[in-house]
Write a structure and sequence with these properties.
- The structure holds 2 protein chains of 2 kinds.
- Chain A is mostly helical.
- Chain A folds into 2 domains: about 5-230, Rhopdopsin 7-helix transmembrane proteins, CATH 1.20.1070; about 230-260, no CATH class.
- Helix content of chain A is about 75%, strand content about 0%.
- Chain A has helices at about 5, 15-35, 40, 45-60, 65-95, 105-120, 135-160, 170-195, 200-220, 240-260.
- Chain B folds into 2 domains: about 1-30; about 35-175.
- Chain B has 7 helices and no strands.
- Chain B is flat, with a radius of gyration of 23 Å.
- Chain B is mainly alpha-helical.
- Classes of the chains: A mainly alpha, B mainly alpha.
- The interface between A and B is large, with 61 and 52 residues.
Chain lengths: ~260, ~180
């Protein structure tokens, strides 16, 4: 997440370190997802990581102060934003797939939450400065989209807290990473759009949080994490699910017995 | 950037982060499905709440006042003890209601058919029940000040309605659960 407006000139030392770390961790995460077969399950997330990696590699081949770099940054950043939205929707569909009992409830919920998230994200738009550059326009579009994703993830979590939907560890890890990263991104975006102050510390903070999130995903994501837990925080053993179904059938029988009394 | 704008700006991520931490914590400590057992249901009965319905009735006080040697402190002490017992019953009532809600939610999530209507009713009953609980707790707090309208009938009826809902769902499901 390099700030293009300053990278026109020269990267500072800490930025060089952060960019190098991002490239290394992104490449490692892509490789891990590829070898673990997770790219098939989380196709949008994998696409997002690949686009991010390509974006980070652009300065290696294109001079930073060239018009070509600016254009390639804008195009790749637009792609990154699109993938961010797709990643969240993908996660939502993965978490709620194969649950016919709450199929309609979750569909209705997603409609309401999307509308609410977009509305909340658009609220600060009136306060933000009108852009006068191509990247300025990009940032003005980026901030509401990322903000709406933050609200959307928050509401997904509320749904998962309410219903005992079985969750895999990977889904939880993704959610945690997205939450941390999108909060930082939306906040720094809002500050930047309000006044263009503290550009360097904001950009650095964004990159640090992103590297930490990437590292967290790299260490925590694996194919074993796809095993669904019966209840998050308690059991992670798939055999517990069979036991729970037997338990539910016993509850059914007990309820029917008491209804006949 | 102006100072007044910085404070709300700093508050937004802090509040969001707090919401996320709270939700992740709740997610990690969601109820343990192993505690929703048929044994609990077999032992569950609405009859255990019958004494609660007459704990705070004024008839007992009137009877006490008619007895010889009656003093105001005796009635005061009796009602304080009864309020404590009533609060304990209320805690049990909430616990039983929550347990029925958990069973209902588990049945919805693991159902092979869409249970949208039941999910909606469950949600509404929960809202109504918790509103009733808070109202009753308020009445209980105001009881020493002379507010004597604490009536648990509606809450016990809500508990019975929840049990009936879960029973209805059980009769519809007829052991049709599947792994997800």
């Amino acid at each position: 997440m390099l700030d293009w407006t300053r990278s026109m000139h020269q990267l500072h030392l800490e930025e060089q370190i952060l960019v190098a770390s991002q490239i290394v961790v992104l490449a490692a995460l892509c490789a891990r997802m590829w070898w673990g077969g997770l790219y098939k399950i989380y196709a949008c997330f994998f696409g997002y990581l690949v686009v991010e990696l390509l974006q980070m590699l652009v300065p290696v081949f294109v001079p930073l102060n060239s018009r070509m770099y600016r254009d390639s940054y804008v195009v790749s950043q637009a792609l990154v934003i699109c993938f961010s939205a797709l990643v969240v929707l993908e996660l939502y569909s993965i978490v709620l797939r194969g649950l016919p009992g709450i199929g309609n409830v979750s569909r209705r919920y997603i409609k309401v939450t999307l509308a609410l998230a977009i509305l909340v994200a658009l609220l600060p738009l009136a306060l933000e400065k009108a852009p006068n550059t191509l990247t300025g326009y990009l940032f003005v579009f980026q901030r509401p989209i990322i903000s709406s994703l933050v609200v959307f993830i928050l509401l997904i979590l509320a749904f998962l807290v309410y219903y005992p939907v079985p969750l895999g560890r990977n889904a939880l890890v993704y959610l945690m990473g997205y939450a941390a990263y999108f909060i930082t991104n939306a906040t720094t975006g809002l500050i930047r759009n309000l006044g263009h102050y503290w550009t360097r510390p904001l950009s650095d903070a964004n990159m640090v949080v992103y590297v930490v999130c990437l590292l967290f995903w790299l260490l925590a994501l694996n194919s074993e994490g796809e095993t669904r837990s019966v209840v998050a925080g308690h059991q992670w053993n798939p055999s517990d699910e069979g036991r729970l179904l037997v338990q539910l059938e016993a509850i059914n029988a007990s309820l029917l017995r008491s209804a006949r009394k | 950037m102006q100072l007044p704008l910085i404070i709300p700006l700093a508050l937004v991520p802090v509040l969001l982060a707090a919401c996320f931490v709270g939700l992740f914590w709740r997610l990690a400590s969601r109820f343990d499905a192993q505690h929703c057992t048929s044994e609990w249901l077999d032992g569950f009965s609405l009859d255990s709440y019958v004494p609660m319905e007459r704990l705070l009735e004024s008839r007992d006080l009137a009877f006490l006042a008619s007895e010889a040697g009656y003093r105001g402190e005796i009635a005061k002490r009796l009602m304080a003890e009864r309020r404590g017992i009533f609060a304990a019953y209320l805690g049990n009532l909430v616990r039983d209601f929550n347990q029925l809600v958990r069973i209902g939610k588990l049945m919805i999530v693991y159902s092979t058919e869409d249970r949208q209507e039941f999910a909606r009713r469950l949600w509404r009953q929960q809202i109504r029940f918790y509103a009733g609980v808070y109202s009753l707790r308020l009445q209980l707090a105001l009881y020493p000040l002379g507010w004597t309208a604490a009536d648990p009938h509606r809450l016990v009826a809500a508990l019975a309605a929840m049990r009936n809902q879960v029973q209805l769902l059980a009769s519809l499901s007829q052991t049709q659960f599947e792994p997800v």
